[in-house]
Design goal:
This protein is mostly helical. The chain has helices at residues 3-10, 20-28, 32-58, 63-83, 85-94, 102-126.
Length: 131
């Protein structure tokens, strides 16, 4: 995929369906939450700047108050985006023809071996019989 299309995707845009595998790998890969956070930051930041500028130049608010209001909006927007990250990426995949819940199941499959190894180590340490 070309860099401009990737940039469009990370800015919140939709890519053509022929890049559906890229989207699947993006939301199921090891650093999916980091990429989701960056995508959310890219989407929330311009809105925050618009709010601050509208408060200062449109309503005549003092800069510190406008920055505080914009910052609060930024934090709340990012909080809600991250709170619903798994559901959001699952829904994003449905737009590309994947069944509902594909991202979550894809991450589970990717992590299954690692989770079994961790559980085995935990059981070896904490589930020993004391007899």
């Amino acid at each position: 995929m070309n860099p401009a299309l990737k940039l469009w995707y990370y800015a919140g845009g939709r890519v053509p369906v022929e890049h559906r595998q890229f989207v699947y790998e993006d939301v199921t890969g090891p650093k999916w939450l980091v990429r989701f956070t960056i995508r959310s930051l890219v989407q929330v930041t311009p809105l925050t700047v618009i709010i601050v500028l509208a408060l200062v130049f449109g309503l005549g608010s003092p800069w510190p108050l406008a920055i505080a209001c914009g910052s609060l909006g930024f934090v709340v927007g990012l909080y809600f985006a991250l709170s619903y990250a798994p559901e959001s990426v699952d829904y994003r995949l449905t737009k590309y023809g994947y069944p509902r819940g594909s991202a979550t199941s894809g991450r589970r499959e990717r992590n299954a071996v690692r989770d079994r190894e961790r559980q085995a180590k935990y059981d070896a340490v904490w589930r020993r019989s004391e007899g």
